């Protein structure tokens, strides 16, 4: 066992605590798909702010801790929502200014 893994097993930081729960869940066998999928996302609420960044970084921190504790491969799926509850279809625009109302209705 590597010294890095030993340090990770002894770590008391919350990402390692959460990662240990996942290691326990998959102790008998990895998921059928062969990897553990970590999912995160963010959506607009004005300009990007620390809250949306925090959602992504917390997932990444747990994933990295899991990688230190386990040999099971991981993948990260990150999505971005362009919709907000404050906008109607005619107000939704891409950075180029193209309206997305027709696309969203399909």
Shape: globular
Category from helices, strands and their pairing? alpha+beta
Number of beta strands:
2
Number of helices: 4
Main sheet specs: 2 strands, parallel
Q: What percentage of residues falls in helices of 4 or more residues?
A: 40-55%
Radius of gyration over alpha carbons? 19 Å
What percentage of amino acids are in beta strands? 5-15%
Low-confidence stretches: 91-106
Mean pLDDT: 78
Could you explain the architecture of this structure?
The protein is α+β, with helices and mostly antiparallel strands and 106 residues long. It has helices spanning 3-10, 14-25, 50-69, 101-104; strands at 36-42, 74-80. The chain contains 4 helices and 2 strands, in the order H-H-E-H-E-H. It has a two-stranded parallel sheet with strand order 1-2. Helix 2 (14-25) crosses helix 3 (50-69). It is globular, with a radius of gyration of 19 Å. The chain starts with a helix and ends with a helix.
Secondary structure blueprint with pairings:
Blueprint: H1 3-10, H2 14-25, E1 36-42, H3 50-69, E2 74-80, H4 101-104
Parallel strand pairs: 1-2
Helix pairs in contact: 2-3
What labels describe this entry?
106 residues
Could you write a compact summary of the structure shown?
The chain is built from four helices and two strands. The protein has 106 residues and is of the alpha+beta class. The C terminus is likely disordered.
């Amino acid at each position: 066992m590597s010294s890095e893994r030993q340090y990770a097993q002894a770590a008391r930081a919350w990402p390692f605590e959460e990662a240990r729960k996942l290691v326990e869940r998959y102790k008998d066998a990895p998921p059928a798909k062969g990897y553990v999928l970590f999912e995160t996302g963010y959506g607009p609420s004005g300009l990007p702010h620390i809250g949306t960044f925090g959602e992504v970084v917390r997932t990444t921190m747990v994933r990295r801790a899991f990688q230190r504790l386990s040999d099971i491969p991981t993948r990260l799926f990150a999505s971005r929502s362009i919709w907000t509850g404050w906008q109607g279809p005619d107000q939704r625009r891409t950075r180029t200014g193209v309206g997305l109302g027709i696309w969203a209705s399909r």
